Amino acid sequence: MEITFWGVRGSYPVPGPATVRYGGQTSCVEVRAKSGAGVIIDAGTGLRALGQKLAREGHVAPRRYSILLSHVHWDHIQGLPFFEPAYVQDTVIDVYALLTAADELQQVIGGITRHEFFPIPLEAAPADFQFHEVDPGVAMTLGEFRVVPMALNHPFGAVGYRIEADGTSVAYVSDTAPFTEVLHKQHFLSGLELLTDDDRAALTQMKADLVAALRGCDTVIYDTHYVPDEYARFPHYGHSTPDHALELLAGNDVRRLILYHHAPSHDDDQMDQIAAEYRAKGAEVGIDVITACEGMVLTVGAVKGVAA
Questions:
Q1: Of 185-199, 230-244, 275-289, which has the strongest mean pLDDT?
Q2: Which of the four pLDDT bands, split at 50, 70 and 90, describes residue 186?
Q3: What are the residues facing 103 on neighbouring strands?
Q4: Cα(62)–Cα(91) distance, integer angstroms
Q5: What is the pLDDT, as a whole number, of residue 205?
Q6: What is the band of 306 on the pLDDT scale with cuts at 50, 70, 90?
Q7: What is the CATH number of domain 2-299?
Q8: Residue 274: pLDDT band by 50, 70, 90 thresholds?
Q9: What is the model's pLDDT at position 103?
Q10: Domain extents for the chain?
């Protein structure tokens, strides 16, 4: 498989002179099998450039696209109204996500194209949007891809995805907090809640399930939004650090970790420091650590110990 990073930021886009090397668009990753079949993970502002690439290559024609959403927070869906295939008649766009607690998925996605925000409502787009609920732990088959959703610890719920094809695997784990101080439930946490015994048991089980789902995965793309001192100030926002990712993956037969969902406040110079520090920390536990950059293309399933 091959993965292309079209957006690597979290929270909101920050393109500009301070983010030239790592990029400023929000979450969007393309996964392609050797056959050319593909799936898209998340639909942040990076989705716009992906749609433009498909148009340039002459691939925008009536066809079917699969978009796997981790959740429906703004930075993961904002690109949907700007995805060029959405304006091609007879195209089908399958959108997979958790059913949100607030409302049905279709209404949530349709909300971003309400007349107050966008000139064309979702129902007026020529493409046929079809919405599918995913269930953590229940595998799906999308063409030649086997996809397993994984429950994550994020406000109002989120899922990661393990994707298998071509005899190898990649996992996308964004957005998630670690599984210690806070259990994110289907409501906003105005302050840190005291964990009950049931909460601690739920966190322990969620972590165990995620570790099991990631075991033996070639490449794991992980939410490493914060550095440690930032996480200490904002543990209730639902994001992790590179240290949390390495702790979870070490000893789990994972070849490569991709740092992802970078904080918008991290400019290129700080990202260089993060990349160097955690490349060294990863080497200590036998994991190749790469920091995601917009436009980066990686091969999944390369020879162990060799960064593609």
A1: 275-289
A2: low
A3: none
A4: 4
A5: 93
A6: very low
A7: 3.60.15.10
A8: very high
A9: 59
A10: 2-299
Six token digits for residue 136: 């953590």
What integer pLDDT is reported at residue 171 of this predicted model?
98
**Could you write out the DSSP letters of every residue in 161-218?**
EEEEETTEEEEEE-S---SSS----SS--SSPPPPPHHHHHHHHHHHHHHHHHHTT-S
Q: How far apart are the C-alpha atoms of 282 and 261, rounded to whole Å? A: 18
More confident position, 125 or 168: 168
Distance of alpha carbon 206 from alpha carbon 270, whole angstroms: 32
CA 187 to chain centre: 21
Nearest-10 Cα torsion for 168, 174, 179, 182: -170
Question: Which amino acid is it at 301?
Answer: G
Tokens standing for residue 210: 């995620």
**Looking at residues 122-144, what average pLDDT do you find?**
93
List phi, psi (to 5°) of 222: -130, 140
CA distance 201 to 131: 32
Decide: 141 and 96 in contact? Cβ < 8 Å: no
- Give me the mean pLDDT over the 229-234 stretch: 92
